[in-house]
UniProtKB/TrEMBL annotation:
It comes from the Eukaryota. Residues 189-206 have a biased composition (Low complexity). Residues 262-272, 708-720 have a biased composition (Acidic residues). Residues 180-211, 251-272, 361-395, 705-727, 756-776 are annotated as: Disordered. Residues 251-261 have a biased composition (Basic and acidic residues). This is DUF1308 domain-containing protein. It comes from Kwoniella bestiolae CBS 10118.
Length: 776
């Protein structure tokens, strides 16, 4: 009686291998696998990035549990019945596949597809459920397991761990069925004429071509074509990793060392043991499936550090200015001479104790309700945490006064115009280096770097530069943002001396003159000298003309009418072709364009009044009933901000969506002051779909990992020890600065000793959106 093999030595070796694996995982920086959006946040100075890799913690728990199981087996001193090493090697191979796949990594060990996760309406290529053979209902679309979801959701990776011998067994089984049928029907078939030779049979008719590998691929393709996705995403591609099948038949024989020359000749002439094996591979590849062979055993864990972090995105020197930036650029906070002290800043923005609002008991309120303490704001004021000193200083002040005070203090510490100039200079430097690398002019490397370094002078010194050495910096904005800026600064009385309104008119081309006239930056504007903002879709025309509220609403209704019969599908594979040709964009630009387009379509569709409840004689362009059920929460009518003074034709979030959409379409960098609308869009469920991240990486051609010296030379060593190795195609999609509120009106009133609160009585109802009126 033969004795069974003792796997105790293998058990100890398996535990050592697993310890090495767990140690490697614990040391590994998972941030390398997760997505970083090309957003430059100059408020928090943090990344807008992926939260987690779905399923990873559960998988890691399974690895650690397996370690505890091996420990228990070792402690028991009972020899294992089966070899424990293959299971551990499979876990090591799985981890290697995870960290060698293309980031961003969305999930591991995830079930995808199935009726619960189908896009609606169903994709044309998806399988329609049909009645089963018993007629007892419909067949359900079955889910498929995806081992790794990579490239932000664009790639599904499935591990196929069966050996060649398993496929051969499937072929023999298929052949046995064919032979059995042939034997039973040979007599009747013999009179039916000559048979087609097996060599002429197609792939589909060959027995065994519906093997487990083909079936797995078909299930993955079906699920990928029907699964829901984020707006603008493509159908996921399929990769099958055949971990126990070599790439060529010669590799089958390389497992055993060969020393004989005859053996080497046989190895060179080797072929697959069954021609259906290469036919299967060809069939799958013809369907667009990527096949990867081998278990990565030739790559030790110590050599695998994962993909490089993306380089800090470079802003495009063609800037798209969001509504917040247009308003902020006009703000008195940016242009009036800065206070010399915190006390002077308080005198400009905070009311003295004797002019503070009190509650019913005569006590001063901590923070008065409403942006100006009038209590007329329908939106809840989010109370910011204050320390005891700030609480006492700001007690009883209006929200607007507090915001203005903090803006002034921030401007004293970080002047926006100066900081923006520094950003532009840095972007120019990066683009020069980028162009040099693309052109391959390595011989000019030293002189170019020296030239760029010499540009690191202060903003004032830039004025002495030769104009020919200056970069081309262009500023654009949307028609909606220009309209909103005009309405916000033209409705009601003039703000103080009307300097903010004058800047607005000159910026939009409504008045001739220097935007910086009378500003503390006059003569020191840097790259913003002669600021003029170009408006999309108005180039070549007479220029910007402010429209009435009625015109804007009528245009919005017309757009909504055009969308009546267009199905709006947030979770379909609706890759939009309406993009700018020849412009390099990041994956984030593409999905941002699609999701903002979707929200805008939803909003304009909601402007169509319900014919059964609306009153045709209703005046003032108001809509009684709206189809708002599908609107995201931040676009619901009850959530839209209503300015107490200005007449605004489009709500602020809608105007901001237009800016984000157009900047993404053009591949530009959208400048925002504050994150209000972006935070709302970022958190929408349409952008948080199972199996998808908000974007993906399209690496710049020729981009590769760079060494420490190159990183430090180019300024990419951010002090965190993270060296960023690859650049995305395109530029930063969004750059965020701290917001700036209007301050001229309050400053001038306070200088006169007028601490009253603005009310709607200031606004002449008959003036519409006419020119600004002088403050009486």
């Amino acid at each position: 009686m033969s004795q069974s093999q003792d796997f105790t030595p293998n058990l100890h070796h398996a535990r050592l291998l697993l310890t090495e694996l767990i140690s490697h995982i614990q040391r590994f920086d998972l941030n390398k696998l997760m997505y970083r959006a090309p957003i430059l946040d100059r408020i928090r100075f943090e990344h807008w990035s992926q939260d987690e890799i779905m399923g990873f913690k559960k998988w890691l728990d399974g690895v650690e549990n397996h370690g505890r199981l091996l420990d228990a087996m070792i402690d028991s001193r009972i020899p294992p019945k089966d070899d424990p090493i293959p299971t551990v090697l499979n876990l090591i191979t799985y981890w290697k596949i995870i960290i060698t796949s293309q980031s961003p990594m969305v999930g591991v060990k995830m079930s995808m597809g199935g009726e619960k996760r189908q896009a609606w309406p169903l994709s044309k290529t998806s399988t329609v459920p049909t009645a089963n053979v018993n007629g007892k209902g419909k067949e359900k679309e079955k889910e498929v397991w995806v081992d790794v979801i990579a490239q932000g959701g664009r790639e599904w990776i499935r591990i196929y761990s069966k050996k060649i011998s398993h496929l051969l067994a499937e072929f023999r089984e298929a052949d046995s069925y064919v032979n059995s049928d042939f034997d039973s029907d040979s007599e009747s078939d013999s009179s039916a004429g000559p048979k087609t030779s097996s060599s002429k049979q197609t792939t589909k008719t060959k027995p065994g071509m519906d093997n487990s590998l083909v079936t797995t691929a078909q299930d993955l393709l079906r699920a990928a074509n029907s699964v829901e996705s984020i707006p603008g995403a493509p159908v996921p591609s399929i990769t099958i990793h055949l971990t126990r099948i070599p790439a060529t038949p010669r590799d089958l024989y390389r497992k055993t060392p060969r020393s004989d020359d005859n053996d080497r000749e046989e190895e060179e002439e080797a072929d697959w043991p069954d021609n259906r094996i290469p036919l299967t591979f060809q069939h799958l590849q013809s369907q667009g499936i990527n096949l990867i062979f081998g278990d990565l055993s030739d790559k030790p864990l110590s050599s695998l550090s994962g993909p490089p972090l993306p380089s800090e995105p470079i802003p495009n020197l063609m800037f798209n200015l969001d509504i917040t930036t247009l308003l902020g650029l006009c703000s008195d906070v940016l242009h009036h001479p800065l206070p010399i002290s915190k006390a002077e800043a308080a005198r400009r923005s905070l009311r003295p104790t004797g002019h503070l609002l009190q509650d019913a008991n005569g006590e001063i309120k901590l923070v008065s309700r409403g942006r100006d303490g009038t209590g007329k704001s329908k939106n809840k004021v989010k109370r910011q945490p204050l320390d005891s000193e700030e609480e006492e200083e700001l007690k009883g002040q209006s929200q607007n006064s507090i915001e203005l005070y903090k803006c002034i203090l921030e401007e004293m510490e970080r002047p926006f115009v100066q900081e923006f100039n520094e950003v532009i200079e840095g972007a120019w430097k990066e683009q020069l280096i980028r162009k040099k690398k693309k052109d391959g002019r390595s011989d000019q490397s030293e002189s170019l770097v020296n030239t760029v370094k010499n540009l690191g002078a202060k903003i004032q010194e830039k004025l002495d530069f030769n104009e020919k050495a200056q970069p081309t910096v262009e500023f654009y904005t949307t028609l909606q943002a220009a309209q909103y800026t005009y309405e916000a600064l033209s409705s009601g009385p003039a703000h103080g001396h009307g300097m903010e309104q004058r800047r607005m008119r000159r910026m939009l081309g409504l008045e001739e003159g220097d935007f910086f006239e009378g500003s503390r930056y006059e003569g020191k504007e840097g790259f913003l000298r002669g600021l003029k903002v170009r408006i999309f879709d108005l180039e070549g025309q007479e220029g910007f003309r402010a429209r009435s509220v009625g015109e804007v609403l009528e245009e919005g209704r017309k757009r909504g009418e055009d969308l009546r019969n267009v199905p709006l599908n947030c979770h379909g594979h609706d890759v939009d072709d309406d993009t700018t040709d020849g412009v390099e964009k990041t994956g984030f630009h593409q999905t941002l364009y699609s999701i903002t387009s979707h929200f805008l379509d939803q909003y304009y569709l909601s402007l169509i009044a319900d014919s059964t409840t609306s009153n045709p004689s209703q005046k003032n362009h108001k809509i009684i009933s709206q189809t708002t059920g599908n609107l995201p929460n931040f676009l619901q009518p009850r959530k839209l901000p209503t300015p107490p003074i200005a007449k605004i034709s489009l709500p602020f979030p809608v105007v901001s969506l237009h800016s984000l959409q157009r900047g993404a379409k053009e591949g530009m960098t959208t400048i925002m002051m504050g994150t209000a609308t972006l935070k709302e869009v970022w958190g929408q469920v349409c952008w948080r779909v199972r199996g998808w991240e908000r974007g993906w990486y399209d690496w710049e051609e020729g981009s590769s990992i760079r060494n420490d010296e190159e990183e430090k030379e180019e300024g990419n060593d951010d002090g965190t020890g993270e060296l960023h190795g690859r650049r995305e195609k395109g530029h930063a999609a969004i750059m965020i600065f701290p917001y700036r509120v209007f301050g001229e009106g309050k400053r001038v009133r306070f200088e006169k000793g007028d601490y009253s609160y603005p009310t709607k009585d200031w606004w002449d109802e008959e003036s519409g959106v006419g020119g600004p009126q002088e403050d009486g």
